Amino acid sequence: MYGARHVSPFSCSEGRSVTAPATDTRPPDTRTEVERARSAFASGRTRPLSWRIAQLEGLLRFVDDSDADIAAAIGADLGRSPMATFMADIGPVRHEIRHTLAKLASWVRPTPVRVSAATAPGRAWSLPEPKGTVLILGTWNFPLLLTVQPLVSALAAGNTVVLKPSDLASATGALLARLLPRYVDPEAVRVVLGDGQVNRALLAERFDHIFFTGSTAVGRAVMTAAAQHLTPVTLELGGKSPVIVTADADIEVAARRIAWAKSINAGQTCIAPDYVLVEDSVRPRLVERLLVELPAHGANDTTRIVNERHLDRLAGVLASHGGEQFGGVVDRAKLTIAPALVTDPDPESELMREEIFGPILPVLSVENPRAAIDFVNRRPKPLALYLFTSARDTERAVLEQTSSGAVVVNHLLYHLLVPELPFGGVGDSGLGSYHGKHGFDTFSHAKAVLRKPARPDPSLAYPPYGSAMRKVLRRLMG
Fold it and tell me: Known catalytic residue: 236?
């Protein structure tokens, strides 16, 4: 039974290796996988609240039972420590499941709507229904969080899912493929492994929703493929998330928090601070503190750059920024880069044009907060914007005069952990949002329902209308 409790076969306490066992390396029959998920949805079993709760409880047991195995798999993929994986992947997923379980009964209820005088008598309501079979394309940098968290929302909404983990986190993908079917309905959740060729084959199929996490460039390709079937999409992308530090900010706290956020996962985080705009008067103090804090926080992060191609890209960025660089030693054998601070880079360099996705932090001086706002607004809209200030007027100006997926004042990243805040981008940084009720709504269709009695049914309600009835209808419907 897919709700039953199981002991992980990769459990470290059993002394077994986390390396996935040998599997069939032939590419999966993607059409068959999609059809199996569609058949499960067509059976109708995913609609009852009881089925949805069973899936979420199964996911929670999977996370609880497999804590050590998940950490070991992500360690194999990225070199990340178990505690860092708990903080970044396991804890947030567990919290999302528990929050959804606590709220789901209220989310699935119909929402009554008042009828107007023109449509009375009658009752109207909005009914959330599952969209059908959805595709979730996960990513590698947080391979549990960014694959399973949208799965939580999709199952809560009553959908079946084709789940495609990233091939760049192959150990985590293999673990999901092996263990998830033991905890959730294996026909309703089809885990498909493979490379970009498999992604393309899946995108050629018809789905009722596609959820993608990754780069803006690939997001465009996903949207193009979805357009062939008019499939709605949610695109969780990235972009260059700025930090604005004003003269009245607590500089010591700002430096510590920026360095902490930049160092998580070796900077391979879609909401990592990508560059800092600091007022001229406090720039020397901020740079001085960052030169202390960045190495200190970087020393606590064991995460590797995901592969040589990304390492080469980052090395190229470090060689062409045109600014003054501190740190940034590249160790090709270990696939690591020491945290780097780059002051006053060329604004047109690759460092300032493309999302960095690594432990490199540019710092640029601005004359005042207005100049920082203008700088941000000249560039594509970011996934997150961070502001350090003690002035409410400055906070209000940034909130009102910039556009971003989210804003965090006097800290970074923590908005990700508030389940009732929508998480998503705008413009180049994404389309749509999820987490909590927002995720449930993303994977649901709000069906409009109107019920009217058969009687009364006066003939004057139908054309041709007399002059008196025309006046009545104009008053009611105007």
Answer: yes
Length of the chain: 478
pLDDT tens digits, one per residue of 269-326 = 999 999 999 999 999 999 999 999 999 999 888 999 999 999 999 999 999 999 999 9
CATH T-level assignment (fold) for domain 12-237+432-445: Aldehyde Dehydrogenase; Chain A, domain 1 (3.40.605)
Q: Is 32 helix (H, G, I), strand (E, B) or coil?
A: helix
Separation of alpha carbons 253 and 239, rounded Å:
25
Q: From CA 213, how far away is CA 364, in angstroms rounded?
A: 29
Which fold, 241-424? Aldehyde Dehydrogenase; Chain A, domain 2 (3.40.309)
Q: Domain limits of the chain? A: 12-237+432-445, 241-424
pTM (whole model) above 0.85 = yes
Q: Catalytic residue at 308?
A: no
Contact 34/103 with Cβ under 8 angstroms? Answer: no
325: left (phi over 0), alpha (psi -120 to 50) or beta: beta
What span, in angstroms and rounded, lies between the C-alpha atoms of 167 and 196? 8
Give the 3-state secondary structure of 247-297: CCCCHHHHHHHHHHHHHHHHHCCCCCEEEEEEEHHHHHHHHHHHHHHHHHH
Among residues 236, 279, 293, 355, the one annotated as catalytic is 236
The CA distance from 63 to 80, in Å, is 18
Q: Select which of 96, 205, 270, 355 is catalytic.
A: 270
Q: What are 156-196's pLDDT values in tens digits? A: 999 999 999 999 999 999 999 999 999 999 999 999 999 99
Encode 376-396: b = buried (16+ Cβ within 10 Å), e = exposed.
beeebbbbbbbbbbeeeebbe
